[in-house]
Amino acid sequence: MAEQQRSLRVAIPIFDHLTALDAVGPYEVLNAVPGVSVVFVSDKPGLILAGEAQDSHLGLRATASYKDVPHPDVIVVPGGPPTKIPLQHKPLLDWIRKAHETTLFTTSVCTGALILGSAGLLTGLECTTHWSSYKKLEEFGAKASAKRYIQQGKIITAAGVSSGIDMALYLAALLKDKVIAEGVQLLVEYDPQPPFDCGSRAKASPEVLALPFIRPLLD
Hints:
Elements: E1 8-13, H1 20-30, E2 36-42, E3 46-49, E4 59-62, E5 64-65, E6 74-77, H2 90-100, E7 105-109, H3 112-118, E8 126-127, H4 134-138, E9 143-144, E10 149-152, E11 155-158, H5 163-175, H6 178-187, H7 206-209
Parallel strand pairs: 1-2, 1-6, 2-5, 6-7, 7-11, 8-9
Antiparallel strand pairs: 3-4, 10-11
Helix pairs in contact: 1-5, 5-6
């Protein structure tokens, strides 16, 4: 009888003020891949509140601490508001650096790339993040790109928020194969047909770029 293939473990670190879809999009995709399990990790198990507001009604629960999952096969680092993500949080950064030594893939979504950069993993690499954080990304020695997702060796970075779904499907094909990834895409019915074609800065009209919640991000 053939030896049963071991399950691959994906660890998603979560923290206060994270952007929920950065974590939940990849979770839904990767958790549907046969032979893959996904765990949310943090400083300690417990509820983590998402978003910028202090009274957020949306949260995710970490079921393990960093020390509980020292050697995940894959890391997916979500992002959040650049001024609130844990760029100097030593337990998280130390865990990423150590776990990265043995991962198959170390990945990020949106401003999660800044966390990888702060951990010292992106120097000299072509990477992407949310369009408003290209300059910040380059402060960590990376070469910012507007691509939807980019693989550089075993590091994969995805652009803003929703791009985490695309990256996770690409990752699913790397972990298994194209047919499995396509099956997961069908399972979650990921068939984007947005009512507007304004999902990137390059496609945005002057009126959109002038909106009060967009304009400050352009500086």
